[in-house]
Amino acid sequence: MWSHICCGSSEGHLLKVQQFLLDNNWTSSDIAQFQDSLNWTCFPGRYLETLLRQVSNGHIAYFPAMKAFVNLPTENELSFTAEEYSDISGNATAWALVTEGQPGRHMTFSPGCLPAEMRSLSELLGPYGMKFLSESLMWHISSQVAELKKLVVENMDILTQMRTSFDKPDQMVALFKKLSSVDSVLKRMTIIGVILSFRSLAQEALRDVLSHHIPFLVSSVEDFKDHIPRETDLKVAMNVYELSSAAGLPCEIDPALVVALSSQKSDNISPEEEYKIACLLMVFVAVSLPTLASNVMSQYSPAIEGHCNNIHCLAKAVNQIAAALFTIHKGSIEDRLKEFLALASSSLLKIGQESDKVATRNRESVYLLLDMIVQESPFLTMDLLESCFPYVLLRNAYHAVYKQSVASSA
């Protein structure tokens, strides 16, 4: 959509933008804001309400292979096409997804020429507008984290015991049954991952646009970021990350997320207690992962390089939330992610011994989340993963999901 506007403006006549916006279900207030020198404060709300809310409702999925959000088939057709608002690669076009209780079946993509919408949006808003968009997204993430912390507090005693009992299978099973709001934790973390995935597209688009307009400056910032010594003071590193983020470059620690989550500090809770809650949040997510295997929508699709219920976005959520929280609380990000990996691996290995076919129907697809989390992380390595989770299980899991995908499309 935004590329149409950009094309029009480059030709000097905006192609009757007002009528175009009316045809695409924009309200009069939206149009008024657009006419008011492209007031970019209206865009974050539009994306959050129209696009990302539909993602959380299960109507839209993020497809990593296409770098775009795409509509899923539902009983009630959506009034807009998601990829027209979120495509970055220019490859998201007409596609077909035929499912009868089997997500990812008969999925085909046809090469086309949809313009890169996120780049066009970045061109329209500019660096300040994209920064405002990012800050709005982070505010929504911080509200989700606040709710997650409440759930952790409700289960604090149980999670504290689970944190030190991961090598005692029988005790872990008994403790897990006492946990409440497991599904809510996973859903909120998935929503966070979806928002971060959208933000990643926006940042990549901003970087591409700035690289076109000011290539020397962007390359200088990138070179500066890539050569920060590991022993650099955290405050200095965060200043560099903030500069890099403003240029659309990805960072090990997201400065915007750190700022958003820092505002949650409460005078009624000691720093030690806040740190403990952050640690137990990671424990809660780790021990909850096996429940995803029973969800029919958790099936991994090689065609989209993800899952139709967006649980692949958990990889980004786990890494970025951990990095931000333990930067704020001055803890070791690497140590806490190692602990997460050990707990998650131990929990997922248990479902390999389950005899209930319904509870383990997408076991292999959920195993792949561990690989995604490590691939996404600048703090974890495959050697570390193999010390917790046998690589042969991952290899067999990839083989199984690809074989299942071929059989489904036959």
List the helices and strands and how they pair.
Layout: H1 2-10, H2 17-23, H3 28-35, H4 42-56, E1 60-63, E2 68-71, H5 83-86, E3 95-97, E4 107-109, H6 117-154, H7 156-163, H8 169-176, H9 182-213, H10 215-226, H11 234-246, H12 255-262, H13 271-288, E5 300-301, E6 306-307, H14 314-328, H15 333-350, H16 363-376, H17 382-388, H18 391-409
Antiparallel strand pairs: 1-2, 3-4, 5-6
Helix pairs in contact: 1-6, 4-6, 6-9, 6-12, 6-13, 7-8, 7-13, 9-10, 9-14, 10-11, 12-14, 13-14, 13-15, 14-16, 15-16, 16-18
Membrane topology: Single-pass membrane protein
Subcellular location: Cell projection, Lamellipodium membrane
InterPro entries: Nck-associated_protein-1
Characterization of the model:
- By secondary structure, the chain is mainly alpha-helical.
- The protein is built from 18 helices and six strands.
- A hairpin with a 4-residue loop joins strand 5 and strand 6.
- Helix 10 packs antiparallel against helix 11 and helix 14 crosses helix 16.
- The longest helix is centred in the N-terminal third of the chain and has 38 residues.
- The two termini are 35 Å apart.
- About 10% of the residues have low confidence.
- It is found in: Cell projection, Lamellipodium membrane.
- One of its GO terms (biological process) is cortical actin cytoskeleton organization.
- It comes from Paramormyrops kingsleyae.
